[in-house]
Amino acid sequence: MQHNALVGRLITQPVVVVKDDTRFCRFTVAELRKRSGNQTKIEFTAFDAVASHIADKCLVGDTVSINFTITNAVYESDGVNHHGYRFQATLVEFVAAGKQRREQESLRNGQGR
């Protein structure tokens, strides 16, 4: 079994969607470090409890740790076969607050006045 992990900053807000009795969310994470001036950005899909957890607990800008699997994505469109990969989050953990969360906490504590 494969094991992949990434720590990065959440750059899109996860929102849970229900389609055909399946609960899921999509979100993108940018790796914290840059290599040769490039930053890896990966779109993840999470299902069920993992989807609910990240949508409820994490905000854009937060640093998160993600365990994930990679699967083949093969689909046909207009008679053409397309091949790629899907990144499925199996565990998402909050690591550190981003700017949006810090601002919200500051306002809640009365420091944003």
Structural commentary:
- The mean pLDDT is 89.
- The chain is an alpha+beta fold and 113 residues long.
- The chain is globular and about 60 Å long.
- The protein has 2 helices and 6 strands; from the N terminus they run ββββαββα.
- It is 18% helix and 52% strand.
- The longest helix has 10 residues.
- It has a 5-stranded mixed β-barrel.
On the 0 to 100 scale, the average pLDDT is 89
| Principal-axis shape | globular
Number of strands: 6
Low-confidence stretches are: none
Which structural class should the secondary elements be placed in?
A: alpha+beta
- Portion in helices: 10-25%
Which strand order spans the largest sheet, edge to edge or round the barrel? 1-3-4-6-5
Number of helices: 2
The ordered string of helix (H) and strand (E) elements is EEEEHEEH
Strand content is: over 45%
Sheet bearing the most strands, described? 5 strands, mixed, barrel
- The separation of the N and C termini measures 51 Å
**Radius of gyration in whole Å, from Cα?**
16 Å
In short:
The chain is an alpha+beta fold and 113 residues long. It has helices spanning 48-57, 99-108, and strands spanning 4-10, 17-19, 22-31, 41-47, 63-77, 80-96.
Q: What is this structure's SSE topology?
A:
Elements lengths: L3 E7 L6 E3 L2 E10 L9 E7 H10 L5 E15 L2 E17 L2 H10 L5
Parallel strand pairs: 4-6
Antiparallel strand pairs: 1-3, 1-5, 2-3, 3-4, 5-6
Features:
113 residues; alpha+beta; 5-stranded mixed barrel
